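Dear colleagues,

For the upcoming journal club I promised to circulate an example of a predicted protein-ligand complex. I picked one with flavin-adenine dinucleotide because it came up in last month's discussion. The inputs are reproduced below in full, followed by the predicted structure.
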Amino acid sequence: MARIAIIGGGITGLSAALEGAASGHEIVVLEGATQVGGKLRLADVAGHSVDVGAESMLARRPEALELLADLDLAPVHPAPVHASIWSHDELVPMPTGTMLGVPADPAGLRPLLSEAEVARAALEEPVTVAADLSVGDLVEGALGAAVVDRLVEPLLGGVYAGHARRLSAQACAPALFAVAQRGESLTEAARAAARRARGSNAGPVFAGLRGGVGSLPARIVEALEERHVQVRTGAVVRELSRRPQGWQVVVGETRAPETLEVDAVVLAAPARPSARLLQQVAPAASALLSDVDYASMAIVTFAFAAAESAALAGSSGFLVPPVEGRTIKASTFSSSKWPWLADAAPGVVFARVSVGRQGEEADLQRSDEELATDGLADLRAAVGAVPDPIDVHVQRWGGALPQYAVGHPDRVARVRAAVAELPGLAVAGAAYDGVGIPACIGSGRRAAAQVLDHLAGVRPARGTMGA
Ligand SMILES: Cc1cc2nc3c(=O)[nH]c(=O)nc-3n(C[C@H](O)[C@H](O)[C@H](O)COP(=O)(O)OP(=O)(O)OC[C@H]3O[C@@H](n4cnc5c(N)ncnc54)[C@H](O)[C@@H]3O)c2cc1C
């Protein structure tokens, strides 16, 4: 039996631990914070447990649904209510049938875009690309700036808290990038995707969990403990070094460090702490990872008396294009979006707003009270009258979301190539192949599979790590 240390107890590290649990090896998850889960977290708001981090999982990829099935948990799905874009001071229904904002039919962009902007989008100029470029540059070149400013920006802002003209098309819009590599029409690709979606029976796009996605980490820990995996919190890993037969991990306070000797390591921490831990053993990978920028964010959750909150009914919320110059970048009407939450807290309506995009840290340099006041003012400006909240919770997320800058896939490939030189070490997490929960689950599982293969004496084929 070998020993495996998993560094980081976010959804990536916990998924890696689940993957390894049946192997018979001794596995320990080392989480630096006082609780596991990373960006998945619950908090008490008005006496109810609600998500204050991630709250929804893409169901068109298998990983999250497979994880729930492994834990005997049933997914729930959002109510079939529309979302909006807050544009020119009005809430406009989100155009449907777009591929990351690229319309199947430019006419469907009315009234979000002006007639001239729709006409420009309709005159698509197919772009042919040879190398990675930003999503914004790709879409603007083909369809005009307004599609980017009014649609692509808020959509990408919602996922990455980043900017369309900085985020990599190859990493963040791989389907559009592939179309542009072939020099084909983005609109035609969106049309074909919409036709496929109409013809398929793929089921709901998103899934959640009764009790909140933030309840998932505790469920995973229960399952891990039943499967004899040790999960330690407050276990900050400070050093990682190679030993002739494996790895040494130094955990805990500098005054009283604890040394663990292990045979293999899954490094599932964000890019910056991973870069620090790799400094001695993989300096090239460390340098590449330390250059991955992160956006910080805050989520302000409001609880309102249900009787006076009709303005927050019948919609899942709205996104805000940066050109609007508002404080908030999105709002989720949680009680309207998630029927389980409305059932659990019938007298209360929950809505949350998010603040902070890459490079806009100044927006976060306000007290919690100011964030709540400014967030509520934007919410009221968007939807109209909502009462004073009965409770407010502010969750700050420093280093919330890695920014996949242009060239990110190449950077990740170079990190992986450097780490592949070190037997028994694998890296995983939101910094690599997708920030969404299913992508992180997949990344954690693949990393665990790599170290298990190593321990079994199987040499992975070069270039397949994390593919
Ligand atoms: C506000 C917000 C909302 C989001 N909403 C959604 C959503 O609705 N749907 C979705 O799919 N995705 C969402 N995301 C993205 C998604 O939640 C994250 O990308 C994902 O959870 C990251 O998981 P991870 O395990 O890779 O990293 P993390 O969650 O960052 O976990 C890494 C863990 O490593 C620990 N760690 C760091 N350094 C050390 C060390 N030296 N020693 C030990 N432990 C260490 C950290 O404490 C942390 O717990 C959201 C993200 C944020 C911030």
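Two points we might discuss: The first strand starts at residue 3 and ends at 7. The chain has three domains: 3-39+212-292+405-455, 94-199, 294-402.

See you all on Thursday,
B. R.
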